[in-house]
Amino acid sequence: MKAPLSWIKEYVDVPADVTTEELTRRLTLTGLKLEAVESPGAQISGPLVVGRVLTMEPEPQKNGKTINWCTVDVGDANGTGEPQGIVCGAHNFAPGDLVVVILPGGVLPGNFEISARKTYGHLSAGMICSARELGLGEDHDGIIVLPADAGEPGQDARGVLGLDEEVIELEVNPDRAYALSLRGIAREVAVSVEGATGFRDPALRDTPPANDAGHPVVVEDPTGCPVFVARKVTGFDPSAPTPSFIADRIAAAGMRSISLAVDVTNYVMLETGRPIHGYDADKLRGPLVVRRAAAGERMVTLDGTQRVLSPEDLVVTDDSGIIGLGGVMGGETTEMSATTTSILVEAAHWDAVSMFRTGKRHRITSEAGKRNERGVDPTICEAAADRVVELLVAHGGGAADPGVTVVGTPPPMPTLTVAGDRAARVSGMEISEQTAAEMLRAVGCEVSGEGTGTLSVVPPPWRPDLTDPQDTTEEVVRLVGYDKVPSVVPVPPAGRGLTRVQQLRRRFSRTAAAEGYTEVVTFPFVGDADLDALGIPGDDPRRTLLRLENPLSAEAPCMTTTLLPGLLRAAARNVGLGAASFGLFETATVTLPTGGVAPILPVDRRPTEDELRSLEEALPRQPLRLGLVAVGEADASGWWGQGRPVSWADAVDAARAVADSVGLELAARATERAPWHPGRCAELVLAAVEAGDDGTVVGHAGELHPKVCATLGLPRGSVAAELDLDVLVEHAVHLRPAPAFSGYPVAKEDVALVVDAGVPAASVEAALREGAGELLESVRLFDVYTGEQVGEGRKSLAYALRFRASDRTLKEGEAAAAREAAVARAAELTGAAQR
User: Domain 518-626 is in which class?
Assistant: First the structure.
């Protein structure tokens, strides 16, 4: 809602020392948020003055255009006192008229600089301005012609045009329709701004009583239209111009001036908040009837659109048929025009819910509909109609018909029972019962019961949003001041904090970051093309997707079953932007459908336990996963030498680090799984792999398939991993004991074992650990050899074994005995032979 500050101050007295900034700050604090403060003349600089046209000589041009060579008296504004020569292409003025002139050196909106320049054979020193050129609206037949008493030549025109006017634009919440009017904004200023007094209600006026001489009106649906007021003006001059104060104000409020009759109805709507509609009374046939439309009825609205109506639509009819969509838009057949001399003014109150549904159904947005559908004051219909009649008679030369039609009465407002200390309890401020009553009276409520601990509150008719005690509490608190609500930091109860799962999730993320990966958040949506790009076979369980009813994109209509599509897209985007070496990771849930269908439950009661169980069973599983991807170099190249590219081992090591952060150890064994390279993919399982024990699979890691890299635009050799964090959480050692360190010397033993090429190194390592016993401190694979010396289909694995006792120095032969036991166990379980 845009409101000129001078218009607001017509209805409320604001202290002279209250700045616009302070006024809008207070309105914002009480719920009317400031959007902008505008001034029509803010983009105009330099000499802008009143000028009197002395001469006007038409000069036809070769291009068929006729220009006027004018001399204009601009007083002493040009520094000489001599008339100013100006070329003007408009023709809606004559010698003797007062016009608006911007002289050389001035700047118009759009940074349009004015200078003396030669044009059409003359030196034109300035410009005679139109409304469009000054940013005041659209042109009306050319330049602005000022009233004869507007001022003297040379006088600054800013004050005459209202260019110094400040217009405030406020964001009005849907439940506060009263603030879509100057009446409502002025009332808010009166209760919000300290020192503001003397609120003058523009809707408070004496109106003539209803009589039987008015235009007949029949309301068949009093629920949809509780009040209908009709007044008539005859002898209206349709050519009468709109007074500048009306045109300027509705333009400042963001509306377009059309004609005097239309402008007056818009002016009164902005002034009081009550939408008004005008009919060409000579086009009416018989009484007006308000009813619901019949199914399939049609009408043509003012915008020229033929509309098929619904039985829920309220319509206004006469003997000729439907002439208006009640409260939303009038009909074309009774529209006021340039020949209208008799006007029937309608001021009716319409049911807000019906108006909202009609507007949505027909996709009609109008200033009147915007107010009617939010709820407006039903008690001011007579006053608004009388104000329209007053302005039409005063400026249109008409006469007010003595007939006054009033049908119906405004619906009563409810009485609310409110605890006197409720506002204090809710806000935490010291608000007495007396203060609460004063604040409610300030917004127009009738309050009784002070001193009893319970207040009886009747909201004012312009506040249909006040329907329960919570609403009255909000009114009291906002007027006392939201800025005065004390800031009290809640004290958390002892022993609370992050849950075990939350702590572990943080540990996973911190570990991945410490390994050099950057966390990202990607969209969890995929399509078949994404899975095709990863080479995932058609029978893979990851192809069983949960399809969304209303996806953001037709190309990704499903919830993902793996984090890799989003991660790899993010990696490819970074590569495309020039990033050469980096690592990314993400922790998020995936969606695994169970095949269940959720029942549609009633909403009028709480679901039963069986119904809740059926809902739970229909929900898809959503395990927590961690995915990571790395491209480029693991160790950067530089003056120190050649760097090292990432390899499948880096992905495995990162996954092992994540597991190790919660006290778990992962073993890797060869497998084949898309989108990894068939020979460079590891299946990661918990603990040591023993003969006959498949272990608990945690995830997979390795080098991406070359075709996947090529398809997605990633460098060849990029690696990725994906882990099931729910498994790690289930087995995690939440509080890990500090490691014990022995001060005694270590005994080093190395062993090389030859095994079949298909035996996993992890299996050999597990056997060595089992056979070595408790003296073994660590085992590390440091060399793998294949070649003629070990035979075809065989490989040599060299391990470094470290033995240490916590309470003594190992005796000669203890380490060797432990080594031999380890080798024996490896031979037994894996067929290893010492090289």
Answer: alpha beta
